[in-house]
Specification:
The chain is 23% helix and 27% strand. By secondary structure, the chain is α+β, with helices and mostly antiparallel strands. Strands 1-2 form a two-stranded antiparallel sheet. A hairpin with a 2-residue loop joins strand 1 (9-18) and strand 2 (21-29). The longest helix is centred in the middle third of the chain and has 12 residues, at 33-44.
Length: 70
């Protein structure tokens, strides 16, 4: 509900389970960095959310390496 209330668009989602852990990845389109920072802050406040990462696909390495260029 936090994502939809922020007026961001979910464009993709994956779920992975390992033993008793669940990892969900969402691809979200936002309008600007202010919206993004507000959304990250709210998501980190959700019980059970341990990490939130920003990946800018316009600069991300498409070779399978998830690290951003330095």
């Amino acid at each position: 509900r936090i994502i939809s209330d922020s007026a961001a668009n979910i464009v993709g989602c994956t779920t992975r389970t390992t033993a008793h852990l669940v990892e969900e990845t969402f691809w979200i389109d936002v309008h600007n960095t202010r919206q993004l920072h507000g959304l990250v802050k709210k998501l980190l406040g959700v019980e059970g959310v341990t990490e939130v990462h920003r990946v800018d696909e316009s600069i991300a390495d498409t070779s399978g390496n998830d690290e951003l260029p330095r």
